[in-house]
Design goal:
The chain has 344 residues and is of the alpha/beta class. It has helices at 23-35, 49-59, 68-73, 89-98, 113-126, 140-149, 181-197, 291-304, 312-331; strands at residues 14-19, 39-45, 63-65, 79-82, 102-105, 130-132, 157-163, 201-209, 222-229, 234-240, 250-256, 259-264, 268-272, 280-283, 335-336. The two termini are 30 Å apart.
């Protein structure tokens, strides 16, 4: 269902509380929620009073608060959106689930495997919906690629690049707060690659290290990561934190059975060899990474009982791969992956 369909006055609305009113919430989630007629933001919370007050005014929330427990105990709230720093994601998701709230959590799911398991346990014992913000796999050009590939039995070769200058002083590089570049953002890409292959990942090998100032960044920030899948498909991604702002940030290439797909920055797509066409080109006016689509799908999951767009298995799968990327860089060897690692 399109987020603008239906009469907003007669449709049941999903009342939510937002925890974390920082930049990403302000520029992405709040605008998407304002456009979606199935949502009503009931309350917002941030430890910074000014941020909470401004967000509440912007979206028309009933109230703002700096007390997370007030949000959790509010019986008017159906679901919690978690858009805080990474080290609080697991704790807040567990609190929300235990309060009977459905959970939309920005990536990453958690900072380690034990936290992932704790989140999964809380979600299952409270029978609530859970999704994590792996929106790239829902981007229209990625879902188009998936539809082109779904009937092909051959092994796939995939390359994805994500490059940009990443601030050396970002809290993302703190392993105890942000988890590092691969845990904090690489999980997006690992989910995208798994979604395109549609087979279980079986191993990951990563070669890289710290390419930014090692005096400021004490955790690997850049690498070439290769994921091997159960059917023999191989996906490689180049993730660099010392990139060029004047160069396109992301590109995805897929090769299978003498066919090819090319996607640039989720805005331009070309594919060749499908349905008898030599070459088909698609171009959007603006970048669409799937955030609004995921937000709408989450509403559908809660209101209509549909499957969560990025539920526990997908959330944990990409998270586990990100942990194994750091392990592979440290040890210099491929690290095996099994379904028991992420089917929690």
């Amino acid at each position: 269902m399109n987020n603008n369909e239906g009469d907003a006055d007669t449709m049941r609305k999903l009342k939510i509380g937002i925890i974390g009113c920082g930049e990403f919430a302000r520029i992405m989630h709040i605008p998407n929620l304002k456009k979606n007629s199935r949502y009503k933001v009931h309350a917002v919370m941030d430890i910074d009073e000014r941020s909470a007050e401004q967000a509440a005014a912007d979206i028309g929330a009933v109230y703002w608060t700096t007390d997370v427990n007030r949000i959790m105990k509010d019986g008017e709230i159906d679901a919690i959106f978690i858009t805080t720093r990474h080290d609080s994601h697991a704790k807040l998701a567990i609190m929300a689930a235990d309060a009977g709230k459905h959970v939309f959590c920005e990536k990453p799911m958690a900072l380690d495997a034990d936290e992932c398991e704790a989140v999964a346990s809380a979600v299952k014992r409270n029978n609530v919906k859970y999704t994590v913000g792996y929106n790239r796999g829902l981007a229209p050009m990625i879902t188009k690629a998936s539809s082109l590939l779904k009937d092909l039995d051959g092994k796939k070769m995939i390359y994805h690049r994500i490059q940009a200058p990443f601030p050396e002083d970002s809290w993302t590089h703190d392993p105890n707060v942000g988890g590092g570049r691969f845990v904090g953002e690489g999980c997006h890409i690992f989910d995208l690659l798994c979604g395109l292959v549609q087979k279980p990942p079986v191993s990951v090998y990563a070669s890289g290290g710290t390419f930014l100032n090692p005096k400021l960044v004490r955790i690997p920030d850049s690498a070439i990561v290769t994921i091997t899948f159960a059917d023999g498909s191989v996906a490689a991604t180049l993730i660099t934190s010392a990139g060029c702002p004047a160069f396109p940030k992301e590109v995805t290439e897929v090769y299978c059975e003498n066919k090819a797909i090319y996607i640039s920055d989720f805005k331009r797509m070309e594919y060749t060899g499908f349905d008898g066409h030599e070459k088909v080109s698609i171009e959007f006016e603006s970048v669409d990474k799937g955030q609004a689509i995921e937000t709408d799908m989450f509403a559908d999951a809660v209101l209509n009982g549909a499957e969560s767009p990025n539920g526990l298995i997908k959330a944990a799968r990409a998270a586990v791969i990100s942990y194994k990327v750091n392990e592979s860089i440290e040890k210099g060897i491929p690290i095996s992956i099994c379904e028991e690692d992420y089917i929690l």
